[in-house]
Structures are given as structure tokens and as C-alpha cells.
Design a protein that fits this description.
This protein is an alpha+beta fold and about 475 residues long. About 55% of the residues lie in helices and about 15% in strands. Strand 9 and strand 10 form a beta hairpin. Its EC number is 2.7.13.3. Keywords: ATP-binding, Cell membrane, Hydrolase, Kinase, Magnesium, Manganese, Membrane, Nucleotide-binding, Phosphoprotein, Protein phosphatase, Stress response, Transferase, Transmembrane, Transmembrane helix, Two-component regulatory system, Virulence. This is Signal transduction histidine-protein kinase/phosphatase MprB. GO terms for molecular function: kinase activity.
Length: about 475
Amino acid sequence: MVALAFLIPLGLVVQQLARERAFADAERQTAVVVAVLTVTTDPLAIERAIASTGGPAVSRVSVHNLGEEGLEIGTGHAAPKDLARAADQAAPVTATVTGGVSYLEPVDVGSGRTAVVEVFIPSDELSNGVSGAWWALTAVALGLVIASVWVGDRLAAKVTASARQLAGAAGALSEGYLDVRLDPSGPRELAEASFALNVMADRIMALLTNERELVADLSHRLRTPLTALRLDAETLDDSQDAERIRDAIAALEVEIDKLIRAMREPIDAHSPTPDRGERSDGAAASTGEQGCDVAEVVRDRMMFWSAVAGDQERDCKAIGTEGPAPVHVAKSELAAALDALIGNVIRYTPQGVPFEVAVTRRDDGYVVLRVEDGGPGIPDPELALQRGESGQGSTGLGLDIVRRVAIEGNGTVNIGTSATLGGASVVIVMADADPAPKEQPPQSRFGLVGRLSREPNERRRRGKSA
């Protein structure tokens, strides 16, 4: 823009100078002839004066209305009306003619007569050197623009390169590449931002390491009371309750050992997601298991929870566990989510409140796991799904585990009100691992778990009668 602002006016000035130069030459030639006409009207003397102007412009000079007979010297180009106009005005005029412009200057030669000196100026003489000047100015403008663009690009590259490097490092860090580090460069603000990003990455690594060490240490501390529980369980009789307690303690030991081994593994900073048992989208990381059968998990866990429900005089049912319902969720993760839901029912509803667990394999390619109870329900479902927020005095982690399991299974979780029991209804929807439609046997509301839930009550009644 600066180049155009200066060079276009300069080109117009060059064009104006060429025109003025052509008229100046015409005025010079006219002045020689006018000087002779003021002295004599002799044609020979006038011709010699014209010849004295020299150069190729000699042939373009002519004199009109010379003498009483209207003698003309040279070849004229102006029209008679233009000659008459110049003679009447008694002042130099210009007239546009074919091929150029004629400069006409009247001269009083006495006896009331006015001769007119004409100098023809061709069009190429009016623009002599203008095209070359325009080409030169255009080349200068292009050179200036190209040079300014190159210099500006080199100057901006220092800023944009640092900004792109910072943006790329921030994006890689957001994806979980914790080994990303920057060499602070560029403007001071970008260099400070790069340095701050390096410090933040170091702090994240340190915090993750401390977190893993803390979890491993706390898990290791649980071994002591767990060992005491296991020893106490060994002293129990061989009843079904004692076997159930020993199995639960053994399962807990296995989970603690897995947790300690996982936390003792070093953090893989080159991994695209943090190696912390959780995916970048918030879902629980897979423990290496490819999937599980929802119905099988429900049957296994209800074997445990039915006994607890029986001790609290709760009626519990398992529905739809006869047929397979495969999903892409680790068995341990789904079992933990189911334990969290049933544990919430046991802890936060009055004794005697019933609950049921239902499994439905739908034809649209999804498996639905539903846990319902007859308690007061969940007043704020959205708050309950937020990690660490429950509104009921709990840790707020149980439903978050359920949410992450649903995400891992490419599904979702919904909280509402049970239509049959009147309390809370938590529905986990997961993608079917084998979506081909299969015919399932009729569902029964009184399965194996329903019978098991009544056995503790019967044993307790027999004990009281004895």
C-alpha cells in the first residue's frame, strides 16, 4: 500500500512532465518564428528561421495567414476554425488534431493582419519516456513489495514458529504425552509461556508419581488388617457364611495385589494417555480382559449380596440372568460398578427395602443393566454423577465408577425413578459385544438369587425356633 501510494502519483508526475516538455519544445520553436515575424514577413526569412530551430521538429512547424494573400508556409494540421479561434483570442491555444496536438500562437504582423504559427506535436511525443517510466516504477513497486513480504515473513516466523511450537506441545500434553518439553524461544511472552509449560509438565509427572506411590503405600498398609481378617476367618467353622467371608477376603487380597503392582509400574511418559488406570475420556482403563458376560457377573455378585440382603430382611431379585449378555467391559470393572450400586442401596436405604437387578439384551445392539430399589430415590441425578459429589453424605465415587464403566462399554448411564419399586433406578446401557439377535429364554422374576435371598431368613427362623 505504501509503494502504491508513492509510485502511482510519481508515475502521473512523469506523464505530466513528458507533456510539459513537449509543449516547451513547441513554445521554443514558436518563439524563434515569432521573433522573425515581428521584423519581416518575407517567406524566405521565415523559412530560414524555421530551419534554424533544428531537429526533426522542423517539418512540424508551419505559418498560416501570411501576407494579404493568406500565404502559408509548411504543412498545417489545425482546422480553419481552430486557426480563426487562435487569431480572435490573440493568445496561444491548443487544438486536438489527428495524430496529436497542434500548438497555435497568433502574431500581429501589421496592417490589421494576424498570422498564426502552428507547431504540431505527435501523440508519441506527448508520452515520450512515459511507458518506460511506468515499467520502471512497476518493477520498483514489485521489488519493494517482495522485499517487504520476505522481511516481514522472516520477522513473523520467529513469532509464529514459537507459537506453533507452544500450541503443538500443549496439544500433545493434553493428549497425555508427559515427556513433552520446549526450548523457550521467540518473544519474551512466548518464551515465558514455554517455560511455564515445561514446569507444568514436570509438576504433573511429579504429582502422578506421588499419587501412585501414595496409593501403593496405602494399599500395602491394608495388607496388615487384611491378614488379621484372613486369620480370623480361618478360625470360623465350615458353614456357608464362613466360606463366603473367606472368599470375600481372598478376592480382596487379589484386588489389593493388583493395585499395588499397577501402582509400582513406572509412568510411561511416551504413552498417549496417562498410565493411571483411567482413559483420557474418563473411562476406566482396561485391565487386559477383553469383555465379560453381564448375566454371569450379576449371578456371581448377587451370590454375595443376597446373603447381606437376607441379613437385613430385604427382598432381592435378579431378572434376565438366564441368557448370555456379552459386553466389551472387563469383568472386574463391571463387578466393581455393580457392587457400588448395590452397596449404595444397602448403605443408604432403610433395612427391609427391596431391590432388584435386571439384565436385558435388546435387539438394537445394546445390553441394559438396571438396578432399582424401593428407597427414597436420588433427588439430584446430575449432581450424583459428578465425581466427589453425592448430596447424601457419601464419597460420591460409586456412581462415577458406574459412569466410567458405561463409557468404556460405549454406552451411557441414566438415573431415574423405579416404576415398580418406587425408589431409585440406575440404568447402565452398554454396546452388545455380539449384536446378532439371539432368542433368549423367558425371564423369571424368581431365579437362583431369589431363592438364595430367602435362605438366610429361613436359617434364621430355624435358629430362633431351635
